[in-house]
Design a protein that fits this description.
Strand content: over 45%
CATH superfamily: monomeric porin ompg
Radius of gyration: 22 Å
Structural class: mainly beta
CATH topology: Porin
Number of domains: 1
Shape: globular
Strand order of the largest sheet: 1-3-4-6-7-8-9-11-12-15-16-17
Number of strands: 17
Length: 298
Amino acid sequence: MKYAKAAVLALASALCFRALPARACSCSGQGPASALTRPDQTWGIRASQRVLLGYGAFNAHAEFAPFAPGEHDRTVEYDLLAAYRLRRWELSGSFGYGSRSVDIAGEYGQGAGFGDSSLRARFELVDEPAVWQNGVYPALALLASLGLPTGNARGIAPRGLGATELALGVSAERSFARLFRAGAVAQAAARLPDTSLGTSRQLGPRASAELTLSYFAQPDLVLSVLASVRWEGDVALAGHLESGTAQRWSELGAAISWQPWTSPLRVGFAERYAPGVDALGANTVANATGELWLGYVR
C-alpha cells in the first residue's frame, strides 16, 4: 500500500510538472522598460554599443525621401547602465558617450561627446498569477524617469536633447502557451523650458508605445520581435508655437539574448528598422539601428 501511494504521488507530480509553463528566463522580459535584475538579485551593470545609420528622412507632411548619393547620418554610441534592486524597486542610472556625422542637403556637421544622462525608478506593482492560481492578468510595473541634458544639443549633429525630461510609464508582461511572453509599454513625458539653442524654447510633450513578443527557444535563450511608435508635439521658440514641427517615429525590430540562471553574465543583440513608408514618420530621419550589449548581475 505504501509503494502504491508513493507511485500515485510520483505520477501526480510528473503530470503537474508537465502542465507547468516553461520556466521564465532569468530576466524580466525584453526592451528598455524591463528590469536588469531579477527579484533574487541586488545589483547589475550593462555596457552597450549602438550604431544608427540613417538612410532617408520624413518631412512635415509625413512624406519619405531617401538620401541622395553621398548623403549620410551616422551615429555611434556607447552607454553604461548601473542598477540597484531593493525588493520590488529597481533604481538605475545611465550615461553615454558617442559621435555623430551628418551630411544632408549640402549641410555638414559632426560632433563627439557625452550624451544625455537618465535616472529611472521601476516598481513591480503586480506579479502575474502563478500556475496554481486563477487569473489572466499580466505583471505590471510602474516607471518614472528623469532625463538630464548632459549632451550638446546645438548644430546639425546634436548629441543630446538640450532639455530636462520627466517621464511616467507602465509596463505589462504576460506568459502564455508555455514558451511565449508578450509585453506592452506606454510612456508619456514632459520637457522643461530651456535655452540650449540661445533662445527660450519649449519642446512639445512626448508619448510612446511598444509591443514585444518573446519566444523561449531555451530557458536561457530568448528571441524577440517588437513594434514601436513615438510622437512629439510642436516646439515653441521665444514663446511662439512653431506649427508643423511635431515629430513621429515608427520602428520594427528583433532581438536575441542569452541570460542564463547559472551565470551572472548577460549578452544580447537587437536590430531596429524604421520603414521608409509615407505616414510612418514625420520630421525625422529613418534609421537602421544595431545594438550589442553585455551585462553582469549579482
